[in-house]
Write the C-alpha cells for this entry.
Amino acid sequence: MSNIRNVGEMVEPNHDEYNRQRFVSILRKKVLMDFAGDMKTIYQKKVEPNFEKKHGRKPKDGREVRKAMLHEPVFEGWSSLRYNAQLMTWWSVQPAIERDLSDLIQAAKDARAANPAGGSLELNPDVDVPREITELDVHLMPGCFHTEYTDDDVAQGAVYHYGTTVFSGGLPHRRITKGGVASSIANYLKLAHPEFKPKRILDMGCTAGANTTPYKEVYPEAEVHGIDVGAPLLRFGHARAEAEGAALHFRQANATDTGYPDNHFDFITSSFFFHEVSVPDTKKIFKECLRILKPGGLMLHMELPPSALTDPYYNFYLDWDAFYNNEPHYEKFRGLDFPEALAECGFEKDKQLMVRIPNFASTPPDEFKAVATGGDTMRRDHGNGAVWFTFGSWK
Amino acid sequence: MSDKTVNLPLRAKGKRATFYKDPAVDQLFAIVTMLTQELSVAFDRIETVERMLDKSGVISRADIEAYKPGEQEEGERTQRRDEYIGRVFNILHQEAASLRDS
Ligand SMILES: C[S@@+](CC[C@H](N)C(=O)[O-])C[C@H]1O[C@@H](n2cnc3c(N)ncnc32)[C@H](O)[C@@H]1O
C-alpha cells in the first residue's frame, strides 16, 4: 500500500457535523422506508378505491396515480421531507469539505504525481458538458458534477463521495452500498458467462469511480476505464483509486463522442447513468457503444426498470425524481421501449438482453448463483437490498 | 495552488419545488425539518457530555445547574446561536440570494 493520503477517507466532520449527517441518514431511512410504507397504505386503502369508485377502473399509469396523489396531505408532507432531506444531505458534508479542501487538493495532486497503482487521469477542459448538467443541479447537489471553484479542484467529487455515504447511511446494507451495482454485475457475469473474460472495460458516467473499482477486483487482468464530463469527480476518483491500490484509467469525455478507436472494448457498462441523459443523447450513446465495442463484446447497463415492467404505483413512486430531483429526462427514459431503441441503434434483437441481477453482497450466495446460471429472481424492488435492472446487448 | 477559501454554494440550481398550494407552507416545512435536525444534534452533544461526565465521575448534576458562563464564553455562545439561527432559517436567505444572483 502507498502512503498517499486517501481523499475518500480524510475528511473529518466535527462532533455536530457528524451528528447532522447521522440525522440526515436516519431521516432518509424513515422517509424511504417507514413513511413510504404509510403513503402506500393510504394509496391502497383510500386513494385507489376512491379512484375506482369515480372511474370504474384502477389508474392505468404512473401519471394517473400521481394526479390522484398530488394533493393528498401524505404526499405533500412526504415529498417535503424527502426534498429537504435531499438538500440537507449535501449541506451536511459541505462544511468539513470546505475546511479540508486545500488538503484534499494536495492529496489528489500527490496521488497524481506518485501514481502508485499505475492508473491514469486525462482531463480535457474543452469537453462538451451537457446542458442538463450546467443548467440544473442534478440531485439538487449544489454545484452539480462539473463546477470548479479553484485550481485542481476536487470539491464536487468530495461532495458527491461523502454525500452519497450520508445518502444511504441509514439504509440496510449501508456498508456495501459503494460499488454495489458493479460488484453485482461483475460477479453475475463471472457465473453466467465464465468464458467471457473482458480485457478492456469501460464505465460511462463513472462519477467518482465507486462503480468502476469492482470491475478491477473481479477482473484483475483487465484494463479498466471510466469516463465522465466532470473534472472534479475524475480527479477525486483517480486519487482515491490510487490510494486504494486500484489501477483505473479516468478520462474526461462525453459519452456521445468518446474519441476511442472502433472495436476497442470487450465490455461497456454504466450505472445510474442513462436516466440523466436526454433521449436523443441516449441514442447517440448507444450508437457510440456499438462503434467502440469489439465484435463478440458485451454492453450491459444498469438502470431503473422501464415503466412497462413496473406497476402504476411503483412508476409514480420512482418518477418522483423526474419532478423534484432535477432529473428532467428520467420519466421519458423509463418510458422508452428498450428493445426497439437498441435495435434502432444497431443492436440486433436476438443478441439483446435484459436481466435482473440480485444485489451481490446482500443476496445469499446460493440464490445469486441460481439466478446467474439460468433462473430468474423473484425479487422486484429496485436497489441495494434487492435487485438491479440491467439491459444491453452482445455485438 | 491558490489558497483562497472556497465557499460551496447552498442553493441548488433550478426551480425550488413546492408541494403545497401556499409556498409559505413549503418554507415552513423546510424550517421545521432543519430545526428537527438541530435539536437532534443538540441531544447528541448533551448525551456525549453526560456520558463523559458520568464516566469520569467528577461533575454532578447540581454543579451543572449552578453553572454561569463568563463574558467571553457568553460571546462564543452568542456566535454559535447566531450561526444556528442562520442555518435553521436558511430558506429565507436563499430567496434573497437567488435574487442577488439573477
Ligand atoms: C448519477 S451519476 C452516475 C453515478 C455513477 N455511475 C456511480 O455509480 O457512482 C451520472 C454521471 O454521468 C455524468 N454524465 C452525464 N452526461 C454525460 C455524458 N454525456 N457523457 C459523460 N458523462 C456524463 C455526470 O457527470 C455524472 O457524473
About this structure: Chain A touches chain B through 47 residues (CB under 8 Å).
